[in-house]
Write a structure and sequence with these properties.
Blueprint lengths: L4 H10 L20 H27 L16 H8 L9 E5 L6 H14 L4 E5 H10 L4 H11 L3 E5 L8 H14 L4 E6 L3 H4 L6 H11 L3 E5 L19
Parallel strand pairs: 1-4, 1-5, 2-3, 3-4
Helix pairs in contact: 5-6, 5-7, 7-9
């Protein structure tokens, strides 16, 4: 029986051990290990590399921004942040709404949550609200949009960024409401926004449907602010309801 590294690697690839069978993976005798010990090492390396490749693939498929959240922000609710980072809200398919002004780490926090979730062998999809609406409008006529739609449906967490930064038409709101209603029992939804709930009502003409959407999202939900509740550098928000 041949013991040459080349012959062994050919056999590895035939057995679909493609990572340890790759040309750049070095096979060498290790006198500190028994033969069974070295075999276990080889198999563990194959498993480790498969897991890492799957993790990186899900980051790409999920469109996750490569951002790192800085939790050293004075005045935030550290206890709540630590609870969120453990992903406890996802156990009951609960939702998370991240509220804050621009450049306070909202998207970076969501990216960190996505990476943690993916490391638990779960799929995540990140999308901005207007890209989501475009997919919902075109998914029946665009194969690319349909693929993204199906991946969202298979994900345990859906992150929707720039939520209601500007107004939304009633038609688009209806599409968004139907989508969120459908996936809300199957996935955790993470909303990233710079608007408080009363201001959501100002973002569309159909206040009743928007109020229903809010109630659907906050039924089992955490609300986290990425900045202190009082920030003298920012103008005070005074949301106003539309007059009927």
């Amino acid at each position: 029986m041949s013991e040459s590294p080349g012959a062994i690697k050919i056999l590895m690839r035939q057995l679909n051990l493609n990572n340890v069978g790759a040309p750049d993976f070095v096979l060498k005798e290790d006198e500190s290990m028994s033969r069974l010990g070295y075999l276990e090492f080889i198999l563990n390396e194959e498993q480790r590399m498969r897991t890492e490749k799957k993790y990186q693939r899900r980051l790409r498929q999920g469109n996750i921004p490569p951002l790192v959240y800085n939790s050293k922000v004075s005045g935030i609710n550290v206890e709540q942040l630590n609870r969120i980072l453990t992903l406890g809200f996802t156990e009951s398919r609960g939702n998370l709404i991240i509220i804050g002004q621009c450049r306070t780490g909202k998207t970076a926090l969501a990216s960190t949550l996505a990476e943690n979730f993916i490391s638990h062998n779960q799929a995540v999809y990140y999308i901005k609200i207007y890209d989501l609406i475009e997919i919902l409008v075109n998914r029946n006529t665009s194969p690319a949009a349909e693929r993204k739609y199906e991946y969202m449906l298979s994900s345990g967490m859906i992150i929707i960024d720039e939520f209601l930064y500007t107004g939304i038409t009633d038609t688009d709101l209806a599409l968004l409401f139907r989508f969120i209603s459908m996936v809300n029992d199957l996935s955790s939804i993470v909303i990233i926004t710079n608007r408080y709930f009363d201001e959501w009502l100002d973002a569309t003409e159909d206040e009743f449907l928007m109020q229903t959407l809010i109630e659907r999202l906050i039924g089992d939900c955490e609300v986290f602010r990425t900045q202190p509740l009082k920030n003298d550098l920012l103008p005070t928000r005074t949301p106003k309801r539309k007059k009927k």
